[in-house]
Amino acid sequence: MAQFEEVSKQSSQHPKPAGLVLQYGTAGFRTNAKHLDHIMFRMGLLATLRSKKTKATIGVMVTASHNPEEDNGVKLIDPMGEMVTPAWEGYATQLANAEQGDLLTALKDIIEKESINMSQEANVFVGKDTRSSSASLSQAVLDGVLLNFDSFLNFFLHFSHHFYYGLVTTPQLHYMVCCQNTQGKYGEATIEGYYRKLCQAFIQLTKNASNCTDDQKHLSVDGANGIGALKVREMESHLRRELQISLFNDGSKGKLNHQCGADFVKVQQKPPTGININPGERCCSFDGDADRIVYYYTDSDGQFHLLDGDKIATLISTFLKELLTQAGLDLKIAVVQTAYANGSSTHYLEDTMKVIVRCTKTGVKHLHHAAQEFDIGVYFEANGHGTVLFSKVAEEKIQQLAEDPNMNDERKRAARLLQNTINVINQTVGDAISDMLLIEAILAIRGMTVQQWDAIYSDLPNRQLKVKVSDRRVIDTTDAERRAVSPAGLQEAIDTLVKKHRLARSFVRPSGTEDVVRVYAEAETQESADSLAHEVSLAVYRLAGGVGDEPKPLH
Ligand code: 16G
Ligand code: ZN
C-alpha cells in the first residue's frame, strides 16, 4: 500500500536510536526530550490506527507534566477522554521499541491483531505544552498523523472538523476529545467552548454567595511557568469580576516547574519561589500541564499550611453530600484515594462524614475506574490530581429534580447547585483549572476561609523519600500498594519499624515514572515520620539492592 511506502520513507526522518528501549508507563512515555523524536512520530501513527479502530477522534498530548524542562513525554487519549486501554499501551511500547527496519512489521502486526480497516478515516487532536522541545516533538507527531491523509486536499477537507493542533493543558485536550466524540453533548469541542461552559457554571454557582467579600474573591495562582498560566490568562475575561486572580510564575521569566508548581509544593511542603504570599491569603499551584492543583497559605507566624488532594476531596465530597441531603436525593457517593492519602483524611471521611472510601493503586486510570462504580465518585491523589464523576443515572435524577415544577424551593435550589457543579467539573480527567473553579465556588457558597477549610481535620505529619536500587522491579506490592510481597523480608521489616512509632504507617512502591523506589511514612510527629521514612529507606536499600551511598538520616 502507498501508505506503507510513505511510512518507510517518513520514518527515516525520525530514526530510532538503536537499542533504546522505553516503556509506555502510567503517564505515557516520558524521558529526556532528545530521545523522543521517533516515539512522537510513531505515536502519531498509532493514534491514527486507534482512531480507525474506534471510528472516533483520538488525542495525543505532548507533555512531561511536572518533570524538568529538559524532559518531555507523550500520551494517547481515548474517545471518551479517558486514558488509552492497557492493550494499546502494550502496542505503544511495541511500536516504540521496534528497531528501524522492523517498524512496518510492528505496524502490520497491530493492524492484523485489531482487524483494522485501513480505509476508515482517522481523526486526531494533537496538543502540546509550553516546553521548548514540544514544538518540534509535536511536529513529529503530526508527521505520523498526516501520513494518513492521502493528499493535501484531503487534509484540508479534514482540517476544520476533525483535526486540532495547538497549545493546551492536558485536561483541555481530554475535554475536547470527549466533546468531539459525543457530538457536542458534553460541550463544544473548542478551547473557547471549554471556558464558556466552566465559567458560566462558576458564575451561576457563585451568584448567590451573597456573604462573599471582595477579599474572599481573590486568589494567587502559581502557574509553574507552564501552559496552565497561559490558559488562566486566556480564561480571565470569561470570569468577569467573580474571581480575581493574581498570576505568578506565568512563564515570562522563570523556568518551567523549577522551584515552583504543584509537585514542588507538595513534595517540599513549602511555598514556591516567585510568588508573593501575604499571611492568611489563599494560594494555589498548578503543575506543568495543569492537571494537578494544591492549595496553601502561611499563617501570621510564617508557618506553611498545605491543602493537598486529600483536603480537596474532603471539601468537595462534604459539599456534595450536603447538597444531596438538601435535595433529598438518594445517590451513592464515594471517595477514591491511593495509599498516599493522609491517614487523617481517610478517618475523617469514613468516621465523621460516613462516606465510602476506596483505595486503589497509584495512577489516574486506577482511580478513575474505581470512581465509575458509584453514582458520584470523587477521586483525588494526594498530589492534587483528581475530579468527580457523575453516573448517567445521577445526572438524570438531578436534572429531573431541578426541572420539577412541583418541587419545594430548598430541594430545587440544591438540585440547581448540583447541576452547575456538574458543569464546572471536567469529568474526563483531573483538571487544575476546573478544580480551582469548583473549590473557589464551594468556599464562596459556604462563606468559608482557607483556614476553616484547613481545620476540617489535621494532617498526620508525613515524609516521602526515594531510594535508588539496581532494579526496582524486585519490589512487588499488593493491597493497592500498601504491602510489599517481595523482596522477601521487606514487609516484615516495615511492620517492625512501624510498630516503633505512634499512629504510624509506611509503604514502599516502585515509581512508574522515575528509576527509583518511593518510600512513604506518616506518624504522630514530624520527627517520628522522618525517622520512620529513613528507617524504611534503609530496609529497602539493604533488602532490595540499593546502589550508591546508604540513605542518611534527615536530621
Ligand atoms: C503519573 C500519574 C499520576 C501518579 C504519578 C506517580 C497519570 C496521568 N499520572 O504522573 O497519577 O501519581 O505518575 O508517579 O496517571 P510515580 O509512579 O513516579 O510515583
Ligand atoms: Zn500533570
Automatic annotation (TrEMBL):
Q: How is the cofactor bound?
A: Binds 1 Mg(2+) ion per subunit.
InterPro entries, A to Z: A-D-PHexomutase_a/b/a-I, A-D-PHexomutase_a/b/a-I/II/III, A-D-PHexomutase_C, A-D-PHexomutase_C_sf, A-D-PHexomutase_CS, AMG1_II, AMG1_III, PAGM
Q: Which residues cross the membrane?
A: none
Residues binding substrate are E381, A382, N383, R509, P510, S511, G512, T513, R518
Binding annotation for Mg(2+): S65, D287, D289, D291
Residues annotated as domain Alpha-D-phosphohexomutase alpha/beta/alpha: 52-87
Task: Domain (Phosphoacetylglucosamine mutase AMG1): give its ranges.
Answer: 194-294, 308-446
Name the source's superkingdom: Eukaryota
Protein's UniProt keywords contain Cell membrane: no
Q: Name one GO molecular function term.
A: magnesium ion binding
User: Start and end of every Alpha-D-phosphohexomutase C-terminal domain?
Assistant: 485-537
Query: Which cofactor names does the annotation list?
Result: Mg(2+)
What is the active site of this protein?
S65
Query: One Pfam annotation, family name?
Result: PGM_PMM_IV
Q: PROSITE patterns, from UniProt?
A: PGM_PMM
Its pathway? Nucleotide-sugar biosynthesis; UDP-N-acetyl-alpha-D-glucosamine biosynthesis; N-acetyl-alpha-D-glucosamine 1-phosphate from alpha-D-glucosamine 6-phosphate (route I): step 2/2
Known function = Catalyzes the conversion of GlcNAc-6-P into GlcNAc-1-P during the synthesis of uridine diphosphate/UDP-GlcNAc, a sugar nucleotide critical to multiple glycosylation pathways including protein N- and O-glycosylation.
Q: Which family does it belong to?
A: Belongs to the phosphohexose mutase family.
UniProt-recorded name of the protein: Phosphoacetylglucosamine mutase
Q: Which species is this record about?
A: Lates calcarifer (Barramundi)
